[in-house]
């Protein structure tokens, strides 16, 4: 949603709104390291195991992911969340 201190969105509508808002402001450049982002979201998801919330991580890149092996490993490791 653009707020690093409180990045939650409300429902699919909130996710789509955050996505459309970010399209107007995000500039893509490298290196592109996604593993830290995946792990950051995973820490938030791990704190809510009662099913009351769900977490969506949308990854958009304009080129090569610099830490592909680490990103794949992170996604596999956090997929149960």
Largest sheet data? none
Distance between the termini: 21 Å
Number of domains: 2
Strand content: under 5%
User: What's the SSE pattern?
Assistant: HHH
- Structural class, judged by helices and strands? mainly alpha
Radius of gyration: 13 Å
Low-confidence stretches: none
| Amount of helix | 40-55%
Give me the oligomer status.
single chain
Number of helices: 3
Give average pLDDT, whole number: 86
Approximate shape:
flat
* Count of strand segments: 0
Notes on the protein architecture:
By secondary structure, the protein is an all-alpha fold. It has two domains: 1-30, no CATH class; 31-79, no CATH class. Helices cover 44% and strands 0% of the residues. The longest helix has 13 residues, at 11-23. 4% of the residues are buried. The model has no long low-confidence stretch (mean pLDDT 86). Residues 1-80 form the Copine C-terminal domain. GO terms for molecular function: calcium-dependent phospholipid binding. One of its GO terms (biological process) is cellular response to calcium ion.
């Amino acid at each position: 949603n653009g707020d690093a201190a409180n990045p939650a969105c409300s429902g699919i509508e909130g996710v789509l709104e955050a996505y459309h808002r970010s399209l107007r402001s995000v500039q893509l450049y490298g290196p592109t390291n996604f593993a830290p982002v995946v792990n950051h979201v995973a820490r938030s998801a791990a704190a809510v195991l009662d099913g009351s919330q769900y977490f969506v991580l949308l990854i958009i890149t304009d080129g090569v992911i610099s830490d592909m092996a680490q990103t794949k490993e992170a996604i596999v490791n956090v997929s149960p969340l």
